[in-house]
Design goal:
This protein is an alpha/beta fold. It has 2 domains: 115 residues, Enolase-like, N-terminal domain (Enolase-like, domain 1); 231 residues, TIM Barrel (Alpha-Beta Barrel). It contains 12 helices and 16 strands. The strands form 4 sheets. Strands 5-6-7-8-9-10-11-12 form an 8-stranded parallel sheet. Helix 9 links the parallel strand 9 and strand 10. Helix 1 runs parallel beside helix 3 and helix 2 runs antiparallel to helix 3.
Length: 353
């Protein structure tokens, strides 16, 4: 088995509608970098990373340099010695989350192709489907209610409401959606926008209405997050506060949050994500597999992780739905709020570029 060719292709992906988040300027496009690995035996494996200064903290130029440096080295690596190969790539890609994720996924996709197994089975095969939330962006109360009605009519039964700019308005938005759709599960994601006091006021006001409150306080203020967790009547999940296994271990060991989110695009792929899954399992805390705005290839990768592990209780894998020119030809099924895995070997996707 030998890698004979690697290709790195950047693609600018546009959104159907601009996305507004508490901590970032309005997002209208992202840059995805696709990596293709070809073997002498004819397998073609795909990986992908996202470069966005706000979402991943990385410029397109830096991510492209890292991916191209990694592509040169990958030709000398054995495709099934994944731990060794990724360890060899790490110093070359120089901490680039996009490059780490792209090569990590490509090597795992190739492993599935060689084994003739879908990746979710190869990683553990705990289930073959999971419910996902769909995101309600920051907007007026009426716009949010209308968006929620549309999503519910499409079969979604879990809505993640973005907030963090105005705590009182966030409470009103959640309450209005609950009144309009009382049978729908609601989550609130503050994206680090609250103070401790505001977070606790929101949590108390929405007790019984929301399933969880995600990242209520700034990502780098773990003391604040811990105070909210210890006093909140609803579960608190860390998101941006998690940057890899070390931060996951700190949060789990000191019960800084009731659980945390894993995003392959920001943690660098399965190599780190599986360590974080093990930490959550050992600590017996909540685990959510989530996403940023990303191509369906990355959603397929997150889905494989979510389906592989009994620790994963929450799915939040909707990051491809607003993209208008995603080149991924997805194999998984996305219907009525459920994601169902493909039984095709590897990630089950191809890319048309």
């Amino acid at each position: 088995m030998e890698i004979t060719r690697t290709e790195v292709t950047p693609v600018e992906l546009h959104l159907q509608h601009p996305v507004k988040m508490a901590s970032l300027p309005e997002i209208t496009e992202i840059h995805a970098i696709f990596v293709r690995i070809e073997t002498r035996e004819g397998q073609n494996a795909w990986g992908c990373g996202v470069a966005h200064q706000g979402l991943t903290g990385e410029s397109l130029e830096a991510a492209l340099r890292a991916c191209r440096d990694g592509a040169d080295l990958a030709l000398d690596l054995h495709p099934t010695n994944i731990e060794y190969s990724l360890a060899e790539l790490a110093p070359v890609i120089k901490g680039s989350p996009a490059a780490a994720c792209a090569f990590d996924l490509a090597f795992y996709d190739l492993l599935g192709l060689i084994a003739g197994m879908p990746l979710y089975r190869l990683l553990g095969g705990y289930r073959n489907r999971i419910q996902t939330s769909i995101t309600i962006p920051i907007a007026t109360v009426q716009e949010n209610v209308e968006k929620a009605r549309v999503n519910a009519s499409q079969g979604f039964r879990i809505l993640k409401i973005k907030g963090g700019l105005d705590p009182e308005l966030d409470v009103q938005r959640v309450q209005a959606i609950h009144r309009a759709l009382p049978g729908i599960t609601l989550r609130l994601d503050a994206d680090g926008g609250y103070t401790v006091r505001a977070a606790l006021e929101v949590a108390r006001a929405l007790e019984g209405l929301i399933e969880m409150l995600e990242q209520p306080t700034p990502a780098n203020d773990l003391d604040a997050l811990c105070q909210v967790t210890r006093n909140s009547p609803v579960p608190i999940l860390a998101d941006q506060s998690i940057v890899g296994p070390a931060s996951a271990l700190e949060i789990a060991a000191h019960h800084i949050a009731d659980g945390f989110s894993i995003k392959l695009a920001t943690c660098g792929g399965y190599r780190c994500a599986r360590q974080m899954d093990a930490i959550a399992r050992a600590a017996q805390i909540h685990l959510m597999v989530s996403c940023i705005i990303e191509p369906a290839l990355l959603i397929a990768a997150g889905l494989s992780l979510a389906l592989s592990s009994p620790t994963v209780g929450y799915g939040d894998l909707d990051g491809n739905l607003e993209l208008v020119n995603d080149p991924t030809i997805k194999g998984f099924i996305q219907k009525d709020g459920w994601l169902v895995s493909s039984e095709v070997p590897g990630l089950g996707c191809t890319v048309n570029i």
